[in-house]
Specification:
About 35% of the residues lie in helices and about 20% in strands. It is of the alpha/beta class. The longest helix is centred in the middle third of the chain and has 25 residues. The mean pLDDT is about 95.
Length: about 240
């Protein structure tokens, strides 16, 4: 039986690149859609936030001469592109989904509100939340925390390229070891890059746990929801 009834799934925009250097890898997108449909068919209510790093990252844009506010706005639009791609992929496999945007841009997506988001979830549709919080200086990590808290999710699942939280970057340090469980306080004390500080502080204050796992391994999303011991459980 599924461990959670309602989840917030945070996906990395960079993971959408697959083996490419830029943009959206269609196979990776299809794999994600298949995994999401699999758990939607179990009756789990799913909200999704996806980053935009495969197209444009506001903070790195600011280092290249872009005004930070404009750069972040460009990043928000990148998340909308990814959200539309995921929406299309889900619909093509028979999984109903809807894009809600933090910035008004009908008919591309509906304007986000908590009431509308919960209405979509309770109808059995996947709700894809795009454009971050709608404000500059906030990451999609913070957008995920905010949406997860607003929709009263049981847990945030952070799908990444690695299989949990490590003592160091496992892609750079072969001696890094994975935590099975870790508290938000320990994450802050050890300066581990789970999510940005604003996002983790919000989750801690509102008692929204995070499970960090490798979304790029097919079947992992269902395994997490079945309570299998993969990934890292981050708790208050």
């Amino acid at each position: 039986m599924p461990k959670f009834k309602r989840i917030l799934l945070k996906l990395s925009g960079e993971s959408l690149m697959g083996g490419q250097q830029y943009g959206i890898d269609q196979q990776r997108l299809s794999d994600y859609a298949g995994q999401i449909k699999e758990i939607a068919d179990l009756g789990i209510q799913i909200g999704i936030v996806i980053g935009g790093g495969n197209i444009f990252r506001g903070l790195s844009g600011a280092t290249k001469g872009f005004d930070r506010v404009k750069g972040d706005q460009m990043g928000m639009l990148a998340t909308v592109i990814n959200s539309l791609a995921l929406n299309s992929a889900l619909n093509s496999v028979g999984c109903k989904s809807r894009v809600l945007t933090a910035i008004r841009m009908e008919p591309i997506g509906e304007f986000y509100s908590k009431d509308r988001a919960i209405e979509v979830l309770e109808k059995g549709e996947v709700a894809i939340f795009s454009a971050g919080t709608g404000n500059p200086y906030f990451t999609t990590d913070t957008g995920s925390s905010l949406r997860g808290i607003e929709i009263e999710a049981d847990v945030m699942l952070k799908g990444t390229r690695v299989d949990g939280v490590y003592t160091a970057d496992p892609e750079k340090d072969s001696t890094a070891t994975r935590f099975e469980r870790i508290s938000f306080d320990e994450v802050h004390r050890l300066d581990l890059k789970v999510m940005d500080l604003t996002a983790t502080a919000m989750c801690k204050e509102n008692n929204l746990p995070i499970i960090v796992f490798n979304m790029d391994v097919k079947g992992n999303l269902r395994k997490v929801l079945e309570g299998q011991n993969i990934g890292t459980y981050v708790h208050a």
